Amino acid sequence: xxxxxxxxxxxxxxxxxxxxxxxxxxxxxxxxxxxxxxxxxxxxxxxxxxxxxxxxxxxxxxxxxxxxxxxxxxxxxxxxxxxxxxxxxxxxxxxxxxxxxxxxxxxxxxxxxxxxxxxxxxxxxxxxxxxxxxxxxxxxxxxxxxxxxxxxxxxxxxxxxxxxxxxxxxxxxxxxxxxxxxxxxxxxxxxxxxxxxxxxxxxxxxxxxxxxxxxxxxxxxxxxxxxxxxxxxxxxxxxxxxxxxxxxxxxxxxxxxxxxxxxxxxxxxxxxxxxxxxxxxxxxxxxxxxxxxxxxxxxxxxxxxxxxxxxxxxxxxxxxxxxxxxxxxxxxxxxxxxxxxxxxxxxxxxxxxxxxxxxxxxxxxxxxxxxxxxxxxxxxxxxxxxxxxxxxxxxxxxxxxxxxxxxxxxxx
Length: 412
Ligand code: PMP
What we know:
The chain is α/β, with parallel strands linked by helices. It is built from 15 helices and 15 strands. Residues 26, 89-91, 119, 121-122, 167, 171, 196, 198-199, 219, 368 line the site of 4'-deoxy-4'-aminopyridoxal-5'-phosphate.
């Protein structure tokens, strides 16, 4: 086994405190004690605001906060901490890119390409900015095996394309998109590529330099870190010229008043994009989560989840095929540990509620990807089971037995 989920489980207090089979990892992950302790330690030992005070506590807090930028940069293969901007979450990161690019660099007739598998947070900001700037939003569909239609993408890209915004891993289908290939296509026409890494960064090695992508967004809370901290990676060449959309304290070097008016000098990277007091403890918690994942190794995380997903798909196919309809690629080489499905014609909330009675936590509904469900002709949404490093085979076995029981109950 690439990793030992049984010993990993020991680090997660909630999994001991609560009787739960936690299959809602795509929504948020559980937290290891190392992260919880890092947060506690910050508040007990060096809580202060950063960059402002000359006192020792502030210096220590600043150092830890800056170090967190370095840890993230290294984790995703960025060239420097200057390319790492801390934000609240993926949603905020994607909105910042869309507005910063859209308000200053998009014009009437320009085209933005997204895919039908986007989470609302990588769809709606582009939809709004396209309307504001009179740009066109083009939406790429899927093939019959739930993969991105690359042929359609290639035919849609043109000299008018300014941005391609795409998810690295679908939060519904688990489909892993070939963003390296898409980046190449984007760059050939001088467009930029923005990648939603909310589901990929926690579960597989992601290296922005190898992928050659321009922007990457992800959330700490889905990768063992705390809520309220997320990352926007931006290629330095772009960030240097990009204007912030949030103004105020900390993002400014000087604000000069000449008696009548003011002029401003923006701060250096990445601070010019981090207006106001940041989530210092969140960044520290996230860097501890990354340390934890690094110890396991992201290759191992991916390999474990691949074999685990294969096992779950096989069990459903062999034992429940007549009652359970799975949405997503069957080839686990191109799929993350996200399995969305429906049971007969029952509403997904009915199934999720029944699973909860057996202490199995899954998500049901549209998973913030309503257009994708509509595109696939799924009117009521779906049930989603999503896995992580602390899930074990026995949980899948139990899940399959419970599903069988539920189906039997519903049929009677
Ligand atoms: N994109 C994807 C693919 C996601 O799965 C999610 C979370 N469900 C988001 C974006 C939004 O993440 P957050 O709520 O942390 O902003």
